[in-house]
Design goal:
This protein has twelve helices and twelve strands. The protein has helices spanning 16-27, 47-54, 68-77, 98-108, 172-178, 190-200, 227-247, 250-273, 277-292, 294-308, 313-320, 326-334, and strands at 6-12, 34-41, 59-63, 84-89, 92-94, 112-121, 127-129, 132-133, 141-142, 158-159, 167-171, 204-215. The strands form two sheets. Strands 1, 2, 3, 4, 5, 6, 7, 10, 11 and 12 form a ten-stranded mixed sheet that branches.
Length: 347
Amino acid sequence: MAKPLVSIIIVNWNGFEFLDGCLSSIRSNDYRNYEIILVDNGSTDNSVKFVRKKFPEVKLIEAKTNLGFAEGNNIGYGATKGEYILFLNNDTLTENNFLSILVDYLEKNLSVGAVQPKLVKFDRITMDSAGSYLTNTGILYHYGFLKPATNQFYSKPRKIFSAKGAAMLFRREVLEKVGVFDRDFFNYFEETDLCWRTWLAGYEITYVPSSVVYHKAGGTALKVDKKFVIFISYYSFRNRICTLIKNLGPWEFIKIFPFHIFCCLIVAFGFLVRGRPAYTKGIVRAIGWNMANLSSTLKKRKIVQKEIRKIRDRDFFPLIKKNPKLMYYYLFFRLKGFENYIDEEIN
């Protein structure tokens, strides 16, 4: 029996230095029935020329400008033929059996709409992601981030709220029901918005640690100056607020959303006190954007709540909502010290 076709979508922006490793690792994997669609977001390096010469089997879609991760993937999706769709970052290296494991899992677990492999940093010893959970604050709990990859906690399959966009495999039938990425997001939090809609449509999302992908994490972002960090802050806050408005049911919205905005303001004030007014400005702009675009977001919410939602929040929130200790939030915004934080409270 022929194995199902997997369409692999890679969005690239000036990622020349990563492409050889990424595409070569895919080429050497043991799952042979796949196609690769690479969407180049107006790169000014040697990316397109290199791929065309060394990887002629790759279907290249060239955009004239940087469309962002969300719209780049949407365009790539329009060119796919596969029964399964793999969203993969360009700064990744894959184990040779990673795809076989993920496809096999979905083939055997029909209630699961998407899966994420174990994401390990390039050093091979540090975790990048074992999936994320929703919290009472509306901020995600990134499980496993910067922890030892050998920790037994990260070797167990588990249901997760959101897969990480660096590597996640979806059923096409799911994407046909819930849509792909919100093009207005550009970058950041778009995968969580998609995963949330997947849960609302009645599908589960699972972390499958026997499949391993190595991720540079921020490979593209590291190419630009510090202004890009402000860019990240703005889009991550902006898109998270928008996602909450779109996807929370009425009761959970009342419980979570006001508290989330309060947390955003506290963080903004904290950055101001620490002498980082640009970050504060980014968060305030993020809130302002959502106020200015509320009408558009409410139209999207109506589609999610009336057409996509098949289950109530209370039916799946116990599976996908976890609340770490307060220290997590401190470390989350400090972006250091995670290696000393233990995840034992959710195991």
